[in-house]
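# step 3/5: fold
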Amino acid sequence: MRPSRIVVEVSSTVRRIPIAADGVRHLVEATLRAERVRDAMVSVSFVGRTAMARLNGRYLRRAGATDVISFGMGRESGMLPVVGDIYICVAVGRENAKRFRLPLREEIARLVVHGVLHVTGEDHPDDEARTTSPMWRKQERILARAR
């Protein structure tokens, strides 16, 4: 059996993020393990509202900032590494945390796992069925185990 090779880069253009870079790496690795991914290169960037709004408009043709955007380079085969970039807007995450009465750290952790699942090819409906989708249930199981 060949060894796994997972590389996770974490960067931030905002002053404070509620999870240390090592914690973000742990969440990415836990999610990849849960998806049985052995080889991956994933970057997680924490950005401000303006940068996220630009990304959202340019790549998704949607107005305004959103909480997380993921770009996965589709794998032709399970033998190829997972490669992807995840962008998280802490300000929108903070609004989500207030709305759902959650600690900010928990919401940011959820966004990290959510982003990684998208990078691996998972998806969910865009309507209210999102939180009952198989992807959402998988995300919540991963979060519970990663704590």
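# step 4/5: annotate
The CA atoms of residues 45 and 136 lie 22 Å apart.
# step 5/5: archive (pending)
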